[in-house]
Amino acid sequence: MTFQPDADMDAETVRERVDEAIETNDVVLFMKGNQLMPQCGYSANALEHISDHVDEFETVDVLPALDEYREALSEHSDWETIPQTFVDGEFVGGSDILDELDERDELAATLTA
């Protein structure tokens, strides 16, 4: 199967989706793939960390318009890589930051703040 970008995903649509996801969800993970099929190890790692501490959270698959999602996310974080986690509208970090927070036993408190 060949990946086909979603032609309906222009920069403005993606920006609106990013803004809405961050504003309306307590925890949102922008990732490559989805909860059932993460498409990279870092996304799978972030998903596992969040799932260990939070029952309900939103995920957004950035692959249909990767460049547009990177651009839209840059308006909310100073982070260049995917995945990106937001809690209560605030950027937390990527997979490596979730690893560090978990190692310090701070991840549960961060995700449920």
Structure write-up:
It is a single chain. By secondary structure, this protein is of the alpha+beta class. The chain has one domain: 3-Layer(aba) Sandwich (Glutaredoxin). Helix content is 44%, strand content 15%. It has five helices and four strands, in the order H-E-H-E-H-E-E-H-H. It has helices spanning 11-24, 41-53, 66-74, 95-103, 107-111, and strands at residues 27-31, 58-61, 84-87, 90-93. A four-stranded mixed beta sheet has the order 2-1-3-4. Helix 2 (41-53) links the parallel strand 1 and strand 2. Helix 1 (11-24) packs across helix 3 (66-74) and helix 2 crosses helix 4 (95-103). The radius of gyration is 13 Å and the shape is globular. The protein starts with 10 loop residues before the first helix and ends with a helix. Mean pLDDT is 92; it is low at 1-5.
Structure summary:
This protein is α+β, with helices and mostly antiparallel strands.
Largest beta sheet: strand ordering: 2-1-3-4
Domains counted in the coordinates: how many? Answer: 1
| The top level CATH class name | Alpha Beta
Q: Tell me how many strands there are.
A: 4
Q: Give the biggest sheet.
A: 4 strands, mixed
Q: CATH topology, which one? A: Glutaredoxin
Say which CATH homologous superfamily is assigned: Glutaredoxin
Helix vs. strand class: alpha+beta
User: Shape, please?
Assistant: globular
Question: Rg from C-alpha positions?
Answer: 13 Å
Q: Determine the strand fraction and express it as a percent band.
A: 15-25%
CATH architecture: 3-Layer(aba) Sandwich
